[in-house]
């Protein structure tokens, strides 16, 4: 426990204080922030009772108070949360571009096989639909069946080397992989 509690610097006033890993404010600033938060939750100087009716700060629609910090109706609360979350996400991405880049590289390494599968299965369907032919017509043209073409497009099955070459020759492409 001693290695967790250590000297921290208050984000508001800059003073040093003893605190845990998530302690961002000294006890005095924390108390002040708590008072401000409590005052924000009060309307016209009175505490709102749970179950009472209040008005949404965004759309003005009435809602039943279910919590002391509630300020929005159910539909606006979801929108507001999404806006706040997106803003925090963008701020994090701006401050930590190297971490984001590293995470993206790790994701691609973990999912490389699945990503490639998605690419070729989408490519077969894209080529077939742009040529305006059905799965059955493609299957007949390359000497296979409609069910095989369907399985290739769904990604449940990969075309073998012969069929892969036949598909590439039929659509006059070098590869089904996108570059």
TrEMBL record:
<dbReference type="InterPro" id="IPR010982">
    <property type="entry name" value="Lambda_DNA-bd_dom_sf"/>
</dbReference>
<keyword id="KW-0238">DNA-binding</keyword>
<protein>
    <submittedName>
        <fullName>Helix-turn-helix transcriptional regulator</fullName>
    </submittedName>
</protein>
<dbReference type="Pfam" id="PF01381">
    <property type="entry name" value="HTH_3"/>
</dbReference>
<feature type="domain" description="HTH cro/C1-type">
    <location>
        <begin position="124"/>
        <end position="179"/>
    </location>
</feature>
<dbReference type="GO" id="GO:0003677">
    <property type="term" value="F:DNA binding"/>
</dbReference>
<dbReference type="InterPro" id="IPR001387">
    <property type="entry name" value="Cro/C1-type_HTH"/>
</dbReference>
């Amino acid at each position: 426990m001693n290695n967790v509690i250590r000297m921290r610097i208050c984000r508001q006033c800059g003073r040093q204080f003893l605190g845990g890993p998530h302690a961002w404010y000294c006890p005095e600033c924390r108390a002040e922030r708590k008072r401000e938060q409590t005052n924000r939750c009060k309307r016209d100087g009175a505490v709102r009772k749970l179950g009472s009716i209040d008005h949404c700060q965004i759309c003005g629609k009435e809602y039943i108070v279910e919590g002391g910090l509630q300020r929005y109706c159910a539909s606006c609360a979801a929108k507001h949360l999404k806006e706040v979350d997106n803003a925090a996400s963008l701020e994090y991405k701006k401050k930590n571009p190297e971490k984001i880049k590293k995470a993206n590289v790790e994701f691609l390494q973990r999912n490389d096989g699945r990503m490639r599968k998605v690419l070729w299965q989408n490519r077969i369907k894209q080529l077939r639909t742009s040529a305006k032919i059905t799965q059955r017509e493609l299957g007949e043209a390359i000497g296979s069946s409609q069910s095989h073409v369907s399985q290739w497009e769904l990604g449940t099955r990969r075309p073998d080397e012969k069929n892969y070459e036949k598909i590439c020759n039929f659509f006059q492409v070098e590869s089904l992989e996108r570059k």
